Every structure is written in C-alpha cells, then in structure tokens.
Amino acid sequence: MTAICWTTWFFVLFTINPLITNWIGLLMFYSSIFLALVGTAALAGFVVRFVALKHELAWRLVKEAFRQSFLFSILIVVSLVLLSKGLFSWLNLLFLVLGLSILEFFLISYARPNTNVNQHNL
Predict the structure, then answer these.
(1) Per residue in 84-117, pLDDT tens?
(2) Cβ distance 50 to 58 under 8 Å?
(3) What whole-number distance in Å separates Cα of residue 49 and Cα of residue 62?
(4) Entry pTM
(5) CA 48, CA 62: separation in Å to the nearest integer?
(6) Any idea what DSSP says for residue 112?
C-alpha cells in the first residue's frame, strides 16, 4: 500500500499544476503525500523497533510505529501547507512540534494501564 501511495503521489506531482489547480488538486497532493509518509515511516519505525527491541510483541511495535508515523506525517504536511501559504517560520514550527509532542505524551499516558488501582489488594 505504501508503494501505491508513493506512485499516486508521483502521479499527482507530475500531472497537476499547483498554480492553476483548485482545492481538489491540492487535497490530492497533500493527502497522497500524507499517506505515503505514514506508510514509509511506519515501516521504518517497525523495522527499527523490531531489530532493537526483540523482546516486545510485534503488535505493540506496529501500534507505536503507526502512532508516531501519523504524528510525523502531520508535522511534515502541516509544514508544507504553512510553507505554501508563506506562514512557515521557526516559531510556528516550534509551536507545531510542541503541540504534537504534548499530543504524543497524552496518547502514551492514556494508553498505559493504571497499575496503581489494585495495589491495595496485594
């Protein structure tokens, strides 16, 4: 699927003129690069985790890799949108990274089971 997404992105890149296209062409460009980046980063993240952390279960590694690849792809695509609108700056990038980091920490803490609840039963 990742290869299909990259093929779609290259097709959109070479066939749609960004200067004369409407919002549908831009949506196709950004959504195809988003999906291609999610797939590529998830595959790379899974391989790195699988090689480095052999003691973890594979489905947990895939879950973490997809979550982080999704956030990474959001970072790249929003940066590209800001760049196309002339709004890209280091301050905006800092706020974007900070917001995505807070979201990642929230997702990590929300997904972790609460082990303090049943400690009094031990």
Answers:
(1) 999 999 999 999 999 999 999 998 888 666 555 5
(2) yes
(3) 9
(4) 0.81
(5) 11
(6) S
CA dist., res. 4 & res. 18, Å (int) = 22
Helix axis angle, 90-111 relative to 58-84, nearest 10°? 160
What's the alpha-carbon Rg for the chain, to the nearest Å?
19
For residue 93, the one-letter residue type is L
Residue 54, amino acid: K
- Please, where are the H alpha helices in the chain? 2-15, 23-52, 58-84, 90-111
Q: How far apart are CA 16 and CA 36, in angstroms?
A: 18
C-alpha span between 12 and 91 (Å, rounded): 31
Structure tokens, 44: 């790379």
CA contacts within 13 A on the Cβ side of 61: 16
